Amino acid sequence: MAATLWTLVRLMDECENAEKENSSDEVFISTTTIKLLTSEDCVSDILKEQNCQNQDALKKRIYDEKCPAKIIFLILARAGKLDRIGQFLSNGFSDHHLPIELLWTREGYKFRSAKDSNWTTAPFGAGIDYNDVDYFIQKQWPFLAPIFERQFEYVLQQKIPLPLVKKGTPIVSGFSSVSKIEMHPARAPEQVEHSMAMKKMELESEDQIKYVKKEMTNVTSLRLLDHDHLVKAILACTRGKQALFFFPWAKGGDLYSFLKTDSNEGMAAIIWMLDQMVGLCSALSLLADKGYRHGDLKPANILLFPEKSGSYRLKITDVGLSKLHILATSRRLNGTTAKATTRRYSPPEFDLLFDDDGEPVADSDDIKLSRKFDIWPLGCVFIEFLIWAKLGRQKYKEFDKSMKRDRRFWDSAREDLDIKVKDRIQSVEGSIKDTPCDEAVQRILTLVLEQMLLVNSDDRSSASSIHKELKSIRDSYGLTAEQAAESDHRQISQGPPDGSNAMSQSGPELSGIQSKGLSTKAIPSGNTAAMAYVSEALAPLPKNRNADEEIDFATYRIAKLLNQWTVSPDNEFAQKFFSETTRPSPSDRGQLCDSCSRLRIWEPNATISGVMRDFGTRASGCDMCNLLYTVSQRIGLQEDQELSCVRNGPTLNLNGRDGLPILSLFSDPAFNAHDLGSVQVGYPTLSPPESSERYRLFQEWLHVCDNEHGHARDALSGGCAVQMPTRLIHVGESSEHLEDIKDSGFLRYLALSHCWGGSTSLSTMTSNIDQFRNEIPHDQLPLNFQEAIRVTRALKISYLWIDSLCIIQDDPEDWRREAARMGQVFSNAYCTIAATSAATSTEGFLTPKPNSTLSATLETPDGGLLHISEFTEDCNRDLESAPLNTRGWVMQERALSRRTLHFTKTQVYWECGNGLHCERLFKLSNPQSALFADSDFPKAILKYYKGGRITLFQNLYEKYSRLNFSYNSDRPVAILGLEKHLSTILQTRGEFGVFEQYLARSLLWSRPENIFLHSITFQDDHHVPSWSWMAYEGPITYANIPFDKVEWNTDCLLQYDEETGINSKRTVLKAVIRDLKLDKLDIHNKVKLDEECGIEAFNLRGVILGKDKKRES
């Protein structure tokens, strides 16, 4: 039987199937598939099918041993551009040149290959245009996953996929995350388990990038150190602004989790602890001898690896990243897990390295760590180890909880150990009995207090000395952990000795005895420690862990979701932008009074204070006083009241009143002679609305996002085919027409998000669609549409999507089909234009509302200019409360958009996965709004555990329920795409605002007090169940039920058609209905009905979703 001929369609299907085989978010095509698709049979069949010229010559080039072009053949075939292969290969272009990059410049498009660092305009021969190469670039990435061989360090381009076939949920901590991954065996290093831990560091600052390059040498060198208590990296690579380290997978988790979850009964536990202390000190001693420091030693960086004996060996991880960790800790003291973990164990000298703003006192390169830096945190770890060993797991958990609020072992105010630490040390000492094992505990405690936890680092003993002391303590009692386990077993078998107090405990895990105050039980084999919720350790989150019960973690995470905006400078971008921009600085320096001319606002802790009346008296002759007087008026001060503000990075904030920013600081790019630290480089005034500088700013935002963030749709698709809109507006140089998009090839297009505000003056109808395919009458378009076209041309994009023009408005079937795909339209758009300030389509959005921003200018000691102006970045006013963002359809459009240009009444804001930026170049952050900025919505939700995820989707739905619709029946439709994305990322079924995995909490919604809901009338073919809030008009709120205090019932189920056998296409809630015995007073006090209507007590039935849980003591 003849073999089946290869066709282009079959090849594309094989590529698509190969991409879907991987359950990680890295899209790549395996080596096996590439070999199959570049076989001689496949290549010959497809070249013949596509009628390619000079087929023999092409095959010779494709299979050339020195310069093969197999991958080029596959990319062109995958992209449907195989007819261009001759032109691509005409100049000797081969697989060795991959990947290639594209750069847009003022002179046009340029290209660069991996083999040549120079940019060129024509590397592929004559006849190749931009579209061909751009499409080639989009499709190349899945074929370029690296093969990790004997080399340890790799440098990858940002869009190169990793060969991961599986990737677990990342555990995020600080600026890094850890995931359990499985690497494709054909691309993994030899003799290495395919399951590994991948630590990913997001490098947000130039300092972090510099240190990664520097410390990578340390990590490489440390691989040569062999020690049983050190974790060695398997391989390392940098990818764009990511540093990736691969380690062996720690099956036992980390020490922090172990101490909280594992029981500690038995002499064996103490002997095992002592044995591990000896090993850890030995490892630190070896590091110190070789001139290395750890710098971030803590229980979460000590991992448990199983031994053949059934016990665990502790190993230190993250060695070689010390300065990077310390730098990250100093820069991330506000609202990060580094604050909750690393700071706890930091030695007293840590305060001397950094100022109050978290900035290094010396240059980052000059940070010097004492040889005894690691001894302090190791002593802290030993204290926690002793608390666990002598006082028990519960006492350790209580101690851990008491240290959560940024407490450290060292109390700098009292210049002594923290009071909570001292309390626990006294408890440990009080528990010590007259037994050999407790004598060892006493000696360890004395060693820690007298040789390790000493303020002056020079007074601390060395790791080598402490190792000898610990080894002496262990050896003096002559017991190994295994021998102690046998001893425990014998004691359990024989029963309690005479005179001892027998201890009866229920459960198979806690059966044992207590002798002279010592509970005996061997360390259980196969015990898996749970992942700590703020851990940076290379370990998994156990499947059996109930994340809902992590009260402290949920509280911590939810606290981070407060709706508060913070402001920071974005000077790396600003300096590059202004270096290529010719913008004259203000020629008039203005005038200052004597008092203001002496202000030193550029200093980190600068303050300004004064009575409002005094500012007013000097306002006519001083720009600064005029500015301060005007700001005082706007915040509501009286003439005799005092204005007091303090420097906070790039702003001056009010003292009190939650520290709101009122003034902005700018360092003039043309006179930036003085190092002004965290002052924003730039100007207080905006570029003119239609200036080339303004559009160049938009282009630069897009360029940086494309090349550094990877948030573009074509970057994120990884070469996969994406669903294009049915129709797009083709924007030519001087005219526009409607174009039907028939193939699945990728086109860059912009999408307009706007308010209709009543009927638009021009829409696509069945009567005019043929005319629009020829030309859309530009002068009849509403102003919003005309300005969106203007922006599209300025950004050099050929296509634009506008709902009222790309959907046939009087065709119900077309509208229903396109409405269901609305989420994909915005998700696949190159960028979204948001007419945020316009309440109707006729208002226009390009020109901000005129606003004469007051400012003053100070000269710095080195000749620099510092501009001070009013703080105008009010995101709640400009964005969240703007006309566009009050509309129901827009939430989905914003959330699913990759990147958005928000045209507000004051300025333009740029929103992408890297955050929110404004025209005055500040970066603005808000935990709640960060979900909307997620370029791959809603993956940002994975940073949170169950409690945080519930809070996020409830906040999202509460906000959505308050938005407005022209037609209330759109309420369940306008969120379909967003709901589908949430269901996928949460790995659960969801419909009508209810998620199966979180069913009870999804159902616990109600109307707010004093507001009644109203049922929405839907068409007969559109049913929304009464138990869904989507069936009603009006705002909702969810019941505020604390986590870990409810035992949820399991007899309430969400069932679908195929499960119920009903042919009505309805989702069914199946539950046990119970009678409610309530009198009229109970009904009045306890029952809240959604709609305003009377009801008799005997008509009420109820479903019990959960009941109070009896908390364990």
TrEMBL record:
Annotated spans, Disordered: 482-514
CDD domains: PKc
Short name of any one Pfam family annotated for the protein: HET
Sample GO molecular function, one term: ATP binding
Gene3D superfamilies with a match to the protein in the record: Transferase(Phosphotransferase) domain 1 (1.10.510.10)
Polar residues: compositionally biased ranges: 501-514
Domain Protein kinase: 141-470
Source organism superkingdom: Eukaryota
Official protein name in the record: Protein kinase domain-containing protein
The species this protein was found in: Fusarium xylarioides
